[in-house]
Amino acid sequence: MKVTHNGKSKHFRTVWFDKTKNHIRLIEQRLLPHQFKIISTKSYQETSQAIKDMVVRGAGAIGATAAYGLAQGAQIFQGNGIKTFEKHIAKVFQTLASARPTAIDPINAMQSMLSRMHGPSVANRKLQALDLAEEFAEDDVTHCQKIGHIGEQLIQNGTRVLTHCNAGWLAFVDHGSATAPMYSAHEKNKKFHVFCDETRPRSQGAALTAWELSQQGISHDIIADNASGHLMQRGEIDLVIVGSDRTLGKTGEVTNKIGTYTKAVLAKRHGIPFYVAIPLSTIDWKINSGLKIPIEERASEEVLRAWGVSDSGKRLSISIANPSSTARNPSFDITPPELITGIITPVGIIQPKKLWKNRLKLGYDNIKKNLCS
Amino acid sequence: MKVTHNGKSKHFRTVWFDKTKNHIRLIEQRLLPHQFKIISTKSYQETSQAIKDMVVRGAGAIGATAAYGLAQGAQIFQGNGIKTFEKHIAKVFQTLASARPTAIDPINAMQSMLSRMHGPSVANRKLQALDLAEEFAEDDVTHCQKIGHIGEQLIQNGTRVLTHCNAGWLAFVDHGSATAPMYSAHEKNKKFHVFCDETRPRSQGAALTAWELSQQGISHDIIADNASGHLMQRGEIDLVIVGSDRTLGKTGEVTNKIGTYTKAVLAKRHGIPFYVAIPLSTIDWKINSGLKIPIEERASEEVLRAWGVSDSGKRLSISIANPSSTARNPSFDITPPELITGIITPVGIIQPKKLWKNRLKLGYDNIKKNLCS
User: CB contacts < 8 Å between A and B, how many?
Assistant: First the structure.
């Protein structure tokens, strides 16, 4: 998306490949919203470290970064032996896959590349790696764009949209999932307003989504996570759009950032449409119950502290809680299908309980092959 | 309540009066949870400033502080003329009442004193002021204790209680409202667990309620405001108890810290009992609709920043949000009676819709006199 940096407005993706130098270029997301900076990773090991250190984060974005990383690693191979090349690639794969052990996107991205890297020579396979990584990133962009065009119809002049956490373009290669309909509507000159939940404990809504929206000049306000119920009660929210980390194709249950379930319960009570925007790679066709999804409990420090910038411009974290207290930090929750008005996918808006019926349209066959290979 | 300070455990109230020196002593609440310190105000002007600067905060606590402040101001009067004394007292009253213009408690506390300060001489009225201020503080303590004894029955061994914000002893003279049942249950050696909502934007749950509970050795965890829905979904919360800033006697609607309504909606969905603990002074017998309660929108800075202590021990605030974004900050919300299981009052647990029917028991007559005087 467009970013205004040093007074100039320019289009950026979260990640892209510099083929001449064999470098991957990334937005250093840990510095946002206070600083916009592009960094380069000069080897696949550096790329893996950048994923690990969360220089880049978000399902689609780390998927594409790993895909580029695999291509980057392929280029440095010296020699012509297919077997040694495959061994080398397996090492690169392992290095990139282990950067975020619980994330599925890097693995899916690289596996889908490997399943098609069958060229007759090493030179040919190196080229294939470049092409397939580029194709993966392009697909991510296209999927998000389609979500935008389809979801944009939900936003009218005057609509007040609530979103939670950051399912924005920073989490993908471009456009984002929950934000894509907003960017499309903005392109069509619709005038609407967005409420960004702060999204404690990591405050991605206040930091990243608000930054994204302000870069595009979209009217928005940050609110405490506590405030959305009150705003709904007073008739100040018309529509909710969130993203998802994993959506169950068999049941229509949606896993997303902690707090999403609460927004869905509130929206239901107030008769406010609640949509989830997802690319196809987010659908899990295997698991048949939300209770089987393990909910990651992250470090209690995230709840006990806050991260930001002091008045003197120093980046730091501070203790905001009673020092001798402990915290619980479940990071995701599960929203049942009866609270969801529709799932905005690249192939249309689908009722959560009808995902399974629409599985062929939603790419189940391709994914099934991957699952069973 | 008991506070362990410099290795010694001692009982403290939030505010008390040193008659010998004509000083009011206060816990400096702005330093909590990182530092426990007692300060003295040496004049009624200093006392007013302490209320204004939020050295002391919370309905009951500022009510008692203002009552003591009126007595403190009365003592410095020189002379015997009743008329001049009354003029002096009016000035003291005005100074203390203007410290927190929207708060009703200091005014109610001082008015109830004035309505009974009719002694024959100045000397007599000075003594009356001291006695009446002490009586006000004692009543606050007794009311909270009664809430504790009545509400304690809701807590069993193993109960997991959720509370929001700080309706603890720091907000009153002692015991608190929402926390009083917990302290009573703890005294009876019941083993239970408390989840403290962080309560953004001011984080009173993470800072004050968690500090209170840890001082009493009550098992607790801080959670992000986003997490309670998930915990309810997984069956990890059995009971919710919150406080209230204003409860409508005519409708049973409860005004409390932003986010309370959301907890009530979630509790209803999960069939979890939701109680509101209030002293009688919190009941508003006049207003007949929650929509008539103005909802204070506080400074957006509260949402855009966080306050705490750095690793080097420095107290500071940091920016946690996109710098060019704005924020909305409604500070209270209104919970309708159908979401409330019961109101825990000093005279028993009452259904919210039956407050009016029980108005005589709830002290409506006394308050009516005040309202109409």
Answer: 228
A 16-55: CB under 8 A from B:
33-34
ipTM: 0.94
Domain ranges of chain A: 2-145, 150-365
Is the entire prediction scored with pTM above 0.90?
yes
SS3 A42: coil
pLDDT at position B372: 43
* pLDDT tens digits along A271-325: 999 999 999 888 989 999 988 888 889 999 999 999 999 999 999 999 999 999 9
Instruction: Name residues of chain A where pLDDT drops below 50.
Output: 370-373
B2-145 CATH pick, 1.20.120.420, 3.40.50.150, 3.40.640.10, 3.40.50.1360: 1.20.120.420
The predicted-structure confidence for A63-82, as pLDDT tens digits, reads as follows 999 999 999 999 999 999 99
- Contact residues on chain B for A195, CB-CB shorter than 8 A: 328
Whether B303 sits inside 8 A of A199 (CB atoms) is no
Those residues whose C-beta lies under 8 Å from the C-beta of residue B337, and which sit 6 or more positions away, are B251, B252, B253, B254, B351, B352, B353
Confidence of residue B373 (pLDDT cuts 50, 70, 90): very low
Identify any residues that bridge with A16 across adjacent strands, giving them in sequence order. A25
Could you please report the per-residue DSSP string of A108-130? HHHHHHHTT---SSHHHHHHHHH
Cβ of B259 within 8 Å of Cβ of A229? The answer is yes
Work out the number of other CB atoms within 10 angstroms of the CB of residue B348: 13
| Contacts B207 to A, Cβ<8 Å | 320-322
Which residue in chain A has the smallest CA separation from B206?
A321
Which 8-state DSSP code applies to residue B119? Answer: -
Q: Is B174 a catalytic residue?
A: no
Using a CB–CB cutoff of 8 Å, tell me whether A363 touches chain B. no
Of A206, A322, A330, the CB nearest to B206: A322
Q: Which residue among B201, B230, B325 places its CB closest to the CB of A330?
A: B230
Count of alpha carbons within 13 angstroms of residue B130, beta-carbon side: 15
Q: Do the chains contact at B309 and A319, CB–CB below 8 Å?
A: yes
Average pLDDT on B275-279 reads 96
Interface of A with B in 202-241 (CB under 8 A): 203, 206-208, 210-211, 213-214, 220-231, 233
d(CA B32, CA B14): 12
Residue B180 CA to residue B126 CA, distance in Å, equals: 33
Hey, are the CB atoms on B225 and A225 less than 8 Å from each other? yes
Closest CA to B332 of B242, B246, B257: B257
| CA nearest to B199 within chain A | A226
B150-365 homologous superfamily = Translation initiation factor eif-2b; domain 2 (3.40.50.10470)
Collect all residues of chain A within an 8 Å Cβ-Cβ radius of residue B274: none
Each residue's pLDDT tens digit, B35-76: 999 999 999 999 999 999 999 999 899 999 999 999 999 999
Q: Cβ separation of B198 and A196 shorter than 8 Å?
A: no
Find all residues with CB under 8 Å of B321, minimum gap 6, and list them.
A33, A198, A203, A206, A207, A210, A222, A308, B303, B304, B305, B327
B113-160 pLDDT, tens digit each: 999 999 999 999 999 999 999 999 999 999 999 999 999 999 999 999
Q: Write out chain A residues lying below 8 Å of B231, CB-based.
A: 328, 330
- Each residue of B161-205: pLDDT tens digit? 999 999 999 999 999 999 999 999 999 999 999 999 999 999 999
Say how far apart CA A41 and CA A59 lie, in whole Å: 19
Please list every residue in chain A whose beta carbon sits closer than 8 Å to the beta carbon of residue B208.
322
